[in-house]
Design a protein that fits this description.
The chain is α/β, with parallel strands linked by helices and 620 residues long. Helix content is 62%, strand content 9%.
Length: 620
C-alpha cells in the first residue's frame, strides 16, 4: 500500500471516480438531486431581478401623497403594485425554501446510502482476506479506514459536492447576469476576484496540509488509547496509570497544537475572504451610486448588480472551501479503494471439487510441505513435512514453541497455501475445493478462546447458527459449561461483555469447546484447548473432549504432555520437521526429545529405571 505522504501528493478530485460503482445504482436519486439543486440556484438568481422590479416599480417612482380623487386612485394603484412585488418576492423565497429542502433531503440520503454501501463492501471484502493480509496491515489502520475515511466520503457526497455544484451554478449564473446587465461592473469584479482567489488558494493549500497533520495526530492519540484500554489489567498491575495518562496527554497536546495552527491559518483565510468580498461590494456600490447620480442606471439596477456581485464572490469563496474538502475525500477514497483492490492469495478455485461424505471422521495428509510465512520469508515454518492421519484417529502434535505445530492447523484450514507440497482432507487437495466446504468440515478450539459481545446462547450458537436452544444447552452440558452459565445473572441470555471480560479464562475456553461440539465436525482441531482450566475443570473437560473425539478425527496441540498420553499417536516436532513419532510409552523408551520434555514436565529422575513407565496423570 502507498504511504500517507504519497497519498497526499497523489490525491486529486479524480480519485473520487472510485465511488462511481457505488453511485451508479442510485442514478434516479442523483438526477432528482441535480434537478432540485438547479431549481434552487435558478430561484436564488431570480431574487435580484425581483428586487430590482420592487425598487424601480414600487419604491423609486414618485412618492405616495395626499390629494384629490385622482391622486387617491394613483396611490391605490401604487400600493397594489407594491403589494404584488412583495408577493412576488415572497413566492421566490417559498420556492427557494422548498427546492433547498428537497435538495438537502435527497443529497443527504445519497451520502448516507453510499457511505453505508461503501462501508459494508469494504468490511465484507476485508473479512475474506487471509491472515497474510493482517500480517502487513494493522487492524487499527483498517478500522480507521472503515470509520474516518468513510465519514469523509459521506461529508463530500452528502454535503460538499452538492454545495460545490450549487455554488458553481449560482456563480456562473451571476456572472452571466452581470455580463448582460452591467458589463462595466463585471469587468471590475473579475479583476477583484483574481486578487481574492490567488491568495485564497495559497491559504487553502496550507489549511489542507495542516488538516491532514491534525488528523494524523488525532489518530496517534486514538491508537494509544485503544492499545492501553485493551491492556488495562497489565497497566494497572504495573501501576502505570499516571504514565499512560501522561503519554496520552502529550499526544493530545500535539493534536491540539496542530489543530490550533490549522485554525489560525483558516481564520486568516476567512478574514481575508470576508474583507476582500466586502471591499468588492463597497467598490461596486460606489461605482453604482455614481452611475445612479449621473442618471446612467436606476436604483433598482444598482441593487440588482450588488446582489449578483455578492452571489458571485460568495460562490467563489465556497468553491475554494469545497475544493479542499474534495481533496481530503479523494485521499480517503484512495485508501478505501486500496482495501477493495486487495486480493487475497487464498481464494476459491474456479471449479471447486466436492468433498466426499464421511462417517468416521476425515482423513488428513500433508505431503512434503514446505512453507514460509509471508512476513518471515527467510525462516521455514515447515520443511519437507509429511504426515498422514487416518479417519477417526487422534494424533497429538507436541514439541517446543516455534516447532510449527500451529502452522499445521493454519494450512489445514487453508489460511495460507503451501509454498511446495500439498495438503489433503479426505483425499482432496484443499486448494481444489471451496473454502466454505473445507472449513465447514473442521471445528477448532483455539488456545486464545474468542468470546463475542453477545449473550452466552449466541456465543455457543456461533458454531451452528441454525441450532435450536436445546441443542445449544446440550453442547454446553457436554463441555461442562452449563453449570456456570446458569449461575450468571440472566443465565444463557447474560451478555458476556467485550471479548468475554465477564468470564474467567477457563469459562471462556469452555464456551469455545461447546461451540465446537455444537458444530459437530468430522475433523476437530484442539490447540491447547484446556490450557486455561484448573485441575478439576480440566478433568471434566478432558472427559468431554474424549467423548467428542469419538467417531471423528482429532488433531491436538499440547505443551502439557499429560493431556495427550491417551492419543493414538504422538508426533514430535522441532524446527518445522517431524523428529519422533509413536505413543507415549514408545517415545519414553526411545529417550529422545519427547522423553526430555516429559522429564522436565513430570520431574522424573532420568536415572530411574522405571522412568519411562511413570504415569503422567499421577506425576501431573
Amino acid at each position: 500500500m502507498t504511504t500517507a505522504s504519497e497519498r497526499a501528493k497523489a490525491a486529486s478530485p479524480r480519485s473520487l471516480s472510485g465511488l462511481l460503482p457505488f453511485l451508479r445504482p442510485y442514478r434516479g436519486r442523483i438526477a432528482a438531486a441535480i434537478l432540485f439543486l438547479i431549481l434552487a440556484a435558478i430561484t436564488t438568481l431570480a431574487f435580484p431581478t425581483a428586487l430590482r422590479k420592487l425598487i424601480d416599480g414600487g419604491l423609486a417612482s414618485s412618492p405616495i401623497v395626499a390629494g384629490g380623487a385622482t391622486t387617491a386612485v394613483a396611490n391605490g394603484n401604487r400600493l397594489l403594485a407594491l403589494r404584488d412585488h412583495f408577493l412576488a418576492l415572497f413566492g421566490v423565497g417559498v420556492a427557494l425554501g422548498v427546492f433547498s429542502a428537497l435538495r438537502f433531503y435527497t443529497v443527504t440520503w445519497l451520502g448516507e446510502r453510499v457511505t453505508a454501501d461503501l462501508r459494508s463492501a469494504v468490511y465484507r471484502h476485508v473479512v475474506r482476506q487471509s491472515p497474510a493480509f493482517f500480517e502487513t496491515n494493522a487492524t487499527g489502520e483498517v478500522l480507521s479506514r472503515l470509520t474516518t475515511d468513510t465519514t469523509l466520503v459521506q461529508q463530500v457526497v452528502g454535503s460538499s459536492l452538492s454545495m460545490g455544484l450549487r455554488n458553481g451554478v449560482m456563480g456562473i449564473g451571476a456572472m452571466v447576469m452581470l455580463i448582460v446587465t452591467n458589463p462595466y461592473v463585471m469587468t471590475q469584479v473579475l479583476g477583484i476576484l483574481l486578487l481574492v482567489v490567488a491568495p485564497a488558494m495559497v491559504f487553502g493549500r496550507r489549511v489542507r496540509k495542516l488538516s491532514r497533520a491534525s488528523q494524523d495526530r488525532v489518530a496517534d492519540s486514538s491508537a494509544i488509547a485503544a492499545e492501553v484500554l485493551n491492556a488495562i489489567p497489565v497497566v494497572q498491575s504495573y501501576t502505570q496509570e499516571d504514565r499512560e495518562a501522561e503519554r496520552f496527554a502529550v499526544s493530545t497536546e500535539h493534536a491540539f497544537d496542530t489543530a490550533r495552527k490549522r485554525t489560525r491559518v483558516r481564520s486568516m483565510l476567512v478574514a481575508f475572504i470576508i474583507s476582500a468580498t466586502f471591499g468588492a461590494l463597497l467598490w461596486g456600490l460606489y461605482q453604482g451610486t455614481q452611475a445612479v447620480i449621473a442618471g446612467k442606471v436606476s436604483a433598482g439596477h444598482l441593487g440588482e448588480t450588488i446582489v449578483y456581485v455578492l452571489l458571485l464572490v460568495s460562490s467563489v469563496a465556497v468553491l475554494s472551501e469545497v475544493y479542499g474538502d474534495l481533496l481530503r475525500a479523494a485521499g480517503a477514497s484512495e485508501r478505501l479503494m486500496e482495501l477493495l483492490a486487495a486480493v487475497s492469495p487464498v481464494a476459491d478455485p474456479a471449479a471447486p471439487r466436492a468433498l466426499p461424505p464421511t462417517r468416521a471422521g476425515s482423513s488428513v495428509e500433508l505431503r512434503h510441505v514446505q512453507f514460509h510465512y509471508p512476513s518471515r520469508p527467510a525462516h521455514a515454518a515447515l520443511s519437507d513435512y509429511s504426515l498422514r492421519v487416518r479417519p477417526g484417529e487422534t494424533v497429538a502434535l507436541v514439541g517446543p514453541s516455534g516447532a510449527g505445530k500451529s502452522t499445521v492447523f493454519q494450512l489445514l484450514l487453508r489460511f495460507y497455501d503451501t509454498g511446495a507440497g500439498s495438503v489433503l482432507v479426505d483425499d482432496v487437495d484443499v486448494r481444489t475445493t471451496s473454502l466454505e466446504a473445507l472449513r465447514s468440515r473442521i471445528g477448532i478450539v483455539p488456545q486464545d478462546s474468542t468470546v463475542f459481545s453477545a449473550d452466552a446462547m449466541e456465543n455457543i450458537r456461533y458454531g451452528r447458527p441454525d441450532a435450536t436452544d436445546d441443542e445449544v444447552v446440550a453442547a454446553a452440558r457436554a463441555a461442562f459449561a452449563d453449570e456456570f452459565i446458569r449461575r450468571l445473572p440472566e443465565g444463557y441470555k447474560t451478555f458476556l461483555g467485550e471479548r468475554g471480560v465477564r468470564l474467567s479464562g477457563g469459562q471462556r475456553q469452555r464456551i469455545a469447546i461447546a461451540r465446537a461440539m455444537l458444530k459437530n465436525p468430522p475433523l476437530l482441531l484442539l490447540d491447547e484447548a484446556t490450557s486455561a482450566l484448573d485441575a478439576e475443570s480440566e478433568r471434566m473437560v478432558q472427559a468431554a473432549l474424549e467423548a467428542a473425539m469419538a467417531d471423528r478425527t482429532t488433531l491436538v496441540i499440547a505443551h502439557r504432555l499429560a493431556t495427550v498420553q491417551k492419543a493414538d499417536r504422538i508426533v514430535v516436532m522441532e524446527q518445522g520437521r517431524i523428529v519422533e513419532e509413536g505413543n507415549h510409552r514408545e517415545l519414553m523408551q526411545r529417550d529422545g526429545l519427547y522423553a526430555k520434555l516429559a522429564r522436565m514436565q513430570f520431574h522424573l529422575d532420568p536415572l530411574a529405571p522405571s522412568a519411562e513407565a511413570a504415569e503422567p496423570e499421577e506425576a501431573a
